[in-house]
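Most newcomers find our protein records easier to grasp once they have seen one. To make this concrete, we reproduce a full record directly below:

===
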Amino acid sequence: MAEDWDRVAQIYSTMSLLRDTTPGKAVVTVGDLVRLVRGGGIRLSSDQTQYLFSEPNLLQIYRQLKASASIADMPLVAAASSNDLAERPFEGGILQIFKQSDEVALVFVRVDEPAQWTAATLQLESRKRGIFNLRFRQSPDGDGEMQEFIDLTTENGRTMYEALIDPLTSGTFLKSDI
């Protein structure tokens, strides 16, 4: 019988929490952040990204998780740049974007010290487009090169491509094997 009262209390707590949540408000949980940093196929919408950046405690947790898995950061490009980018330098390497057709784009990465890299996920942060991951399926080869294709026929692929060429998008290369 005690279990029944525990279950009632749990249901009541859940209902109260749902009732107190503002309808339409983007919510991000710590579990979402863990899945995001670990490359769990989750993407944050632009509303969820705005919510994350407006919540100092949640943002601190996100930054700590990201720092623990970080290989290299790809910074914003100088504010004076208003053109779409085909190259994104980062400490220890360069990322190049080649739109091969209306259906596919190639993301090519060359790193200076490939031995320090494992398979990586590039986590892109765009206040306009959200936070999402591009997972490279292979570690850099002996020449420090790795590549991945983006399917531009999907909304997610187009959004990712637009974020990659946007100077106001930053990114972090994360270890995929954490």
In short: The chain has a mean pLDDT of 81. The two ends are 43 Å apart (CA to CA).
